[in-house]
Amino acid sequence: DQQVKQNSPSLSVQEGRISILNCDYTNSMFDYFLWYKKYPAEGPTFLISISSIKDKNEDGRFTVFLNKSAKHLSLHIVPSQPGDSAVYFCAASGGGSEKLVFGKGTKLTVNP
Amino acid sequence: GAGVSQSPRYKVAKRGQDVALRCDPISGHVSLFWYQQALGQGPEFLTYFQNEAQLDKSGLPSDRFFAERPEGSVSTLKIQRTQQEDSAVYLCASSSYPVSPRSYNEQFFGPGTRLTVL
Question: Residue B56 is nearest to which of A99, A102, A105, comparing CB atoms?
Fold first, then answer.
């Protein structure tokens, strides 16, 4: 059973528009959430995180929103750039464990 | 500063061979993690060290998998008698937790070792 789900395997947007990547989780013990970006043949690169005591965290073009009641988080990228094209992973930790539980990823393509 | 490094980057093994994968974490990082990523999947947790202590090995898939971090820095993941289902990318990550607060527990990943078992 997947505790972290990214239901969209892929997403395509135009340069300059907003990209919205979604993530759902089932474990109510998760209290820390992260987004990673991955290029082919490289390891995941940390993008942005949010603690469960917040509902929003912003860093430049990237904003993460957390809806605890719905067990849902989303990553907004505004404006999207072709260099943002990559696989994005949602991850969560909590419940006394420091391990990260990952979703399967969403491949984002930003078209010029 | 240097990030997490892993070696080798690629490893091809014949079924039944033993392999050893190395991870050099970011200097000073107390916590070290190993993950396995199969094709088309997200990384899956294997094991966690805090300094030299292995605090969690619940993700190791079988007793053929063994990890160590004897001096609290470099770590080695060893797979004995490799099987085809072991083919995957093995990722190492480090973080400054618990030196840094819980809310700053970003894990920094290395490039991974791609293991192919024939």
Answer: A99
